[in-house]
TrEMBL record, chains A, B:
This is Bifunctional ligase/repressor BirA. SUPFAM superfamilies: C-terminal domain of transcriptional repressors (SSF50037), Class II aaRS and biotin synthetases (SSF55681), Winged helix' DNA-binding domain (SSF46785). Residues 72-259 form the BPL/LPL catalytic domain. Acts both as a biotin--[acetyl-CoA-carboxylase] ligase and a repressor. It catalyses: biotin + L-lysyl-[protein] + ATP = N(6)-biotinyl-L-lysyl-[protein] + AMP + diphosphate + H(+). Keywords: ATP-binding, Biotin, DNA-binding, Ligase, Nucleotide-binding, Repressor, Transcription, Transcription regulation. One of its GO terms (molecular function) is DNA binding. Coiled coil: none annotated.
Length: 326, 326
């Protein structure tokens, strides 16, 4: 699915034309090649999965792009300054977080995105596996160099879950955030977030934010019954590139708000996207299981729980389950 | 200063004898070499800086080891299970934290110690330089794999400062901990601590704890007037290896207490080692300067400050200066 330089330029021209027809003459002028060459490029693009309509005397018109993630397609029309400054796409790697960490160590700049069509060792929290088959989901990581105070680390997960929620909402699908890092549709997981930081006590130097979204899976292995995909919910394929672009653009907005110190607003928005407040829960954190009532989300993004003895507990992370009514 | 295998064994035998005489015959039996060979090894060790007394009919006796840090000397008599499991000594590297980070990525096990006789790029918090000339200080880093909850990160600095305080106290020198990561003698800095973590929101996977102690410097460059050394305070050279061993042994104790979850005790001990409580201070944290009164250290090791408007602020890290009385 590699495009050559002229083909990439042609794709950009078609994209920039926003679905309207553009004449072959116009294209040949812009590309600086003959009409015959334009025709050859169009043919090649069609072979590679682009659906391009051609109508005599009107020209060409981009109908659909192939459902493969390419740097060209991700960058086409992406209106961000930082996020997506560099985009790396891999067909199959162990995990985008691992690759992103490696690139970050090698000096990759903040805003770099690492995308894989397939993850062979996709991970969730606590080293759990994340099922990430090829060409159906969005498996990607964002590298940022936030220089935020280290105790603001939970905010990286907070903004990411809000960003994904917003992008999915745009498809007309309602979601709930399951504290701290999952996104659910009717109780089933459609997205998981795994952030990793490198920090001193003062600042978070680098963060790798991994995002896995089930997009176009028709079904899931029976061992993960609590997973769902956007396609399963809305009944049709979802364009992964448009979804990714929406996420990157929202990410830039929320990341800027975070950098601007809008902690209170972000926590409020996060709180309102959950259904855990006031509920009786069990939380597994480290080796402990603590039961109690969720009374709040703290200003710093922690879950505040009161146990039956009235003791207050604060959590950054953990596994939360609603308690059965006795 | 490299020792060969037999010389290392001989040094261990002399160390194990705890300053008592051991006969040449005994040594030759244990090493499995001739009396003449033993004499040759003793001569070599003396050339390398070991002071070994020999008395006819009584044998040999270790008086003093060279003031060079070697793996053999660090491990001789070190009674720890985890900390110092592996010891790496470098004559001159940029910074022990950088080297430790590199080793940790390569899979170095928790408990590994990285020591340098000289750091050419020693660093303090926020990328500040740390003056670390050769053969006078203790510049080293400890790699741990703590699997502690991420919001316990401040405790790594807390235990390290308590450990260094205790080891220096054993020399009969009083110190104060300057929040969050310096150790002062009469207002001058004798030790700095720089910890770095790699973490997910759940757990700290790896921590690199860098410790720099001014031990035997006679003086400091005029541009760092607020530094002091143990030698400047007590008037004589301090054995760096013994000090290091004391620190490693205390570190293991405190690290175990931390792993056991003795957070409250550790914070209390830390609080009592500072003189900042109740004082009016300015704190520079990130781009902000906040002034107020230090009212407490939180259960989680944060500095709690009340500003003139009565707002509470919590800090993990920052630069604190006492306010001048108006």
């Amino acid at each position: 699915m590699e495009l050559n330089k002229k083909e990439i330029e042609l794709v950009k021209i078609l994209h920039n034309n926003n679905g309207k027809f553009i004449s072959g003459e116009n294209i040949s002028d812009t590309l600086g090649v003959s009409r015959t060459a334009v025709w050859k490029y169009i043919k090649n693009l069609r072979k590679k999965g682009y659906i391009i309509e051609s109508v005599p005397r009107r020209g060409y018109h981009l109908v659909e792009v192939p459902d493969k993630i390419t740097v060209t397609e991700v960058l086409a029309g992406l209106k961000t300054n930082l996020i997506g400054k560099e985009v790396r796409v891999f067909s199959s790697i162990d995990s985008t977080n691992n690759k992103a960490r490696e690139l970050a160590k090698g000096g990759a700049s903040g805003g770099t995105i690492v995308i894989a069509e397939e993850q062979t060792g996709g991970k969730g929290r606590l080293g759990r596996k994340w099922y990430s088959p090829p060409y159906t989901g969005l498996w990607f990581s964002v590298i940022v160099r936030p220089h935020l105070p280290s105790n603001r680390a939970p905010f990286l997960t907070i903004i990411t879950s809000l960003v994904v929620k917003k992008a999915i909402n745009k498809l007309g699908i309602e979601v709930l955030i399951k504290w701290p890092n999952d996104i659910l549709i009717r109780g089933k997981k459609v997205c998981g977030i795994l952030s990793e930081i490198m920090a001193t006590p003062d600042v978070i130097n680098t963060a790798i934010i991994g995002i896995g979204i089930n997009v176009n899976q028709d079904s899931f292995p029976s061992k993960i019954p609590l997973a769902t995909s956007l396609k399963q919910v809305c009944g049709h394929n979802v364009n992964r590139i448009e979804l990714l672009q929406d996420i990157l653009m929202e990410f830039e907005n929320y990341y800027n708000r975070l950098k601007d110190g809008c902690y209170r607003d972000l926590v409020t928005e996060w709180k309102n996207s959950m259904d855990i407040l006031g509920k009786e829960v069990d939380i597994v954190a480290g080796n402990e299981i603590i039961s109690g009532k969720v009374v709040s989300i703290s200003r710093r993004g922690e879950l505040v729980l009161i146990d039956p003895d009235g003791n207050k507990h604060l959590f950054w992370a953990g596994d939360v389950t609603l308690r059965q009514k006795d």
